[in-house]
Amino acid sequence: MTKLKTQSLKKRQSDLANTNKQLEILSNGIFQNGELPTFKNKIAETNQFPLKAKALEILQINVGYMCNQVCEHCHVDAGPDRKEIMTKDTMKQILDVVKTTGAHTLDLTGGAPEMNPNFRWFVEEASKIGIKDFIVRSNLTIIRANKKYYDLPEFFKKHNIHVVSSMPHWTRGKTDKQRGEGVFDMSIKALQELNAVGYGMPDSELKLDLVYNPSGAFLPGDQASMEKDFKKALMEDFGIQFHNLFAITNLPISRFLDYLIASENYEDYMYSLVEAYNPMAVENVMCTNTLSVSWDGYLFDCDFNQMLDLPVNSKSKHISEYKTELLEGRNIVISQHCYGCTAGAGSSCQGTVA
Amino acid sequence: MSKTYYDPSDLRKFGKITEWGEELGNKFFEYYGKVFEEGALSAREKSLIALAVAHTEQCPYCIDAYTKDGLQRGVTKEEMMEAIHVGAAIKSGATLVHGVQMMNKVNKLDG
């Protein structure tokens, strides 16, 4: 059994559950008084403003905010109390679009995407389309949370799903601190089960990647070195294998923003992000080739903008009115949270970008 | 003037030392950067050495910097504390080993 780490901001009726409040914090203070440059001004220094969307490569679908975990730093503010769940009708609209776009990657996320009652139907239908890379972002513990999920490794295998899972550290203490008591042991068990059906093995085509995001107010270290350390520790301690590690920066929004403010780390963290700004990373930020679809079918430049209620700057605002010509070349909507994707080697749902 | 000798935000201004001595400042930072690159020792090992030395030197800026650097590299708090004990052991050993000099002197003067 796992123990919930905290409650969602929404359930706590926190001020920050209001996205306008978050955007206000990100625009005021050190960014208003000129102590730090706004993201817009920073990218303008290297003539990269406005950021423009290129051809669509990755369609990321958030099938709902419900989750069996309540992680300390969740940017979705997901949890068992969140009832926002994608309907089958919206899924059908998405399938129609997937058939016509040139996107090579379909990326399902949540919450715990597996908790959507139509998850399996959607995977079965989408896999028939023949997308090159079909990702499910699984939190691992869901596989062991209830009998009805025990066969997920086999289900993933049957549909050649690329499994991408969060793992904040190779030690129990650091993982449970961020994700809740008991999460580490259950995640290890789930990884072993995925390995048992062939996921993550060196020559296996069943891809299993892990996502590392820092457990506190600091940036991720070098992705390649972290991957080496993770592989060594998980193999030595538990005989676990996986393919790649994606090092992802925590963006200062939602529960992580709440944590930064409560721990009095907000300003230092923003300084760290701005100091680590890398114009090379701006070239490849994920919002330029990705479209994020919310549980109710609305379109966003990325999952973070979705959580900040910053819709795409286009006449195509909903999946039902998707038009490539209206979305390609659109100006990306930015704020100071975008520094999270351009720090150091950059950060995206596929790891570093520079 | 500040009422305290140390201000955490001064660490961010470290790079500004080049403004009053560009050539030497730049050479220092170039050397510094090179030292911490991956070599015969990993960057992670170097970070732990730096953390231990930061404590023996009792440099608050360095302690802040290499604690954060260690966290970024996935270093655990147990590893950090062990590294500091290595520094502490050398510091105390360096004090105590001079006891032999004291003993030599006593023996010479009053043996």
Kindly report the name of the CATH homologous superfamily of chain B.
AhpD-like
Look at the structure and give the mean pLDDT of chain A: 95
Rounded to the nearest angstrom, the radius of gyration of chain B is 19 Å
Beta-strand proportion of chain A:
5-15%
Helix count of chain A equals 15
For the record, give the distance between the C-alpha atoms at the N and C termini of chain B, rounded to a whole number.
Answer: 55 Å
Order of helices and strands of chain A: HHHEHEHEHHEHHEHEHHHEEHH
CATH class annotation of chain A: Alpha Beta
Task: Please tell me the overall pLDDT of chain B.
Answer: 95
CATH topology of chain A: TIM Barrel
Please give the structural blueprint:
The complex is a heterodimer of chains A (about 350) and B (about 110).
Chain A: H1 9-12, H2 19-27, H3 39-45, E1 58-62, H4 88-100, E2 105-109, H5 119-128, E3 133-138, H6 141-145, H7 152-158, E4 162-166, H8 172-179, H9 183-196, E5 208-212, H10 223-238, E6 245-247, H11 254-262, H12 266-275, H13 279-283, E7 290-293, E8 299-300, H14 303-307, H15 324-327
Parallel strand pairs in A: 1-2, 1-7, 2-3, 3-4, 4-5, 5-6
Antiparallel strand pairs in A: 7-8
Chain B: H1 22-35, H2 43-56, H3 60-72, H4 77-97, H5 99-110
InterPro entries (chain B): AhpD-like, AhpD_core, AlkhydPrxdase/COmuclacdeCOase, CMD-like
Protein name (chain B): Alkyl hydroperoxide reductase AhpD
Pfam family, one (chain B): CMD
Would you give an account of this structure?
The complex is a heterodimer of chains A (354) and B (111). Chain A is of the alpha/beta class and 354 residues long. In chain A, 36% of the residues lie in helices and 10% in strands. Chain A has a single domain, classed as TIM Barrel (Alpha-Beta Barrel). Chain A contains 15 helices and eight strands. Chain A has an eight-stranded mixed beta sheet. In chain A, strand 2 (105-109), helix 5 and strand 3 form a beta-alpha-beta unit. Chain A is globular and about 55 Å long. The termini of chain A are far apart. With 111 residues, chain B is an all-alpha fold. Chain B has one domain: AhpD-like (Up-down Bundle). Helix content of chain B is 67%, strand content 0%. Chain B has helices at residues 22-35, 43-56, 60-72, 77-97, 99-110. Chains A and B meet through helix 10 of A and helix 3 of B.
